[in-house]
Amino acid sequence: MAFIDWVLHPTELWAAFWFFMRHAPPDEKTVKLQVSGDMKRCYDFLEMTSRSFAAVIQELNPKLRDGICLFYLVLRGLDTIEDDMTIPGARKRHLLETFHEIIYQKGWTFKESGPDEKDALLLVEFDIVINEFLRLPTEFQDVIADITRRMGAGMAKYTRARVESLEDYNEYCHYAAGLVGHGLSRLFAVSGLEDKSVGEQLELANSMGLFLQKTNITRDINEDVLDGRCFWPKAVWSKYADSEEHLIDRENRDKGMEALNEMCTNVLQHIPDVLEYLNQIQEPSVFRFCAIPQVMAIATIVLCYDNSRVLDGNVKIRKGEALKLISQATTLDNVKRTFYRYIEQLERKNQPDNPMHNQVAKIIDRTKKDIARTLKGGAPVDFTKEYLVLILFFFTITTFFYSYLTEKSSF
Ligand code: IN0
């Protein structure tokens, strides 16, 4: 993150300072220290697959921590096989459809991953994950195996089917992420840390997954098309381009932007379910585990809206912004304030001449009303600008005063 970014976003600098104060080693080490052998190796894998999210999983309540760490690694294993374009179709489908049995096979490892698979090591030493999986309480194993079976079958189907209609799009995202919401919600309930109704409200849990998956798919269009795959539904992009390549082509940029904005609008429809799901969660470490990816997603999708850079390469939110979001995802009210702030940012980006303007404006109005109605103290007022002016004011006063004093003393 460039120096200027920190100067222009002092609240993020503050958040970064706090984050590093709180996460300065050896605290993470203490968690690892408490676990030994294969489970310690599993936390190493977690660090390798996603550094920032690994910390959030390690802060989970001990009743859930190892179970969710292993669920995450099993899903990352499945994901690595699905993403691997070097594995022949039939072999890949067989692996995806039987992965829910493979996780019970002690000693199973996989050394056929392609050279560009960043999590290939996880599969090379997957026998370690299986050892720890088999040590989990059976009710945890049953949930993880059930979700792995249904996700594997769904992914296998879409290795030979394309995402044509909006129904296909919702179905694919259900298999890839909605089912993760189902599995996590059932583990939260089985652990006793959340009410058992959380394990039943699976429509809300599905929306939690769809909000994340659709944000990733919308953001990664350039990278996916260049890799020869596309998860944007044809029913959407074919209105604006003759092919996936034409969609990201600079020659066709205006139409490409209309397609991008329609995809961003599709993601926003899941916001009410996301806030309603988070409203159920009582245990603080579970709440943060669920809320952090959601606030990252709202920041990412607002960044993608009407942003031509998405079609040219992948865009990411600033590191400082991510740390600020993590530090503020503590309570439902704070998360609502964060969503409200980004919805206001979206409102500023939603130009009247944008074909999606009216549809997006409706979602903005409804979301702001819903949040303002349920938030203590009503609609949040963003004082950042006021702070900045104040800081600037004091800065000029002190410099003026200082130069006046130095001048007076030089006489
Ligand atoms: C996740 C989700 C996740 C967390 C909490 C509640 C969820 C409810 C429903 C669905 C998913 C839920 O969070 C992670 C976040 C993550 O890994 N972020 C990465 C960034 C990234 O893009 O990889 C990071 O480095 O911060 C997530 O994105 N997915 C995930 C996978 C497994 C589990 Cl157990 C939980 C991936 C996906 C595809 C969205 C489901």
TrEMBL record:
It holds the Pfam family SQS_PSY. One of its GO terms (molecular function) is squalene synthase [NAD(P)H] activity. One of its GO terms (biological process) is farnesyl diphosphate metabolic process. The chain crosses the membrane at residues 387-405. It is found in: Membrane. GO terms for cellular component: endoplasmic reticulum membrane. Its main location: membrane. Its EC number is 2.5.1.21. Its cofactor is Mg(2+). The keyword Transmembrane applies. Belongs to the phytoene/squalene synthase family. This is squalene synthase. It comes from Coemansia reversa (strain ATCC 12441 / NRRL 1564).
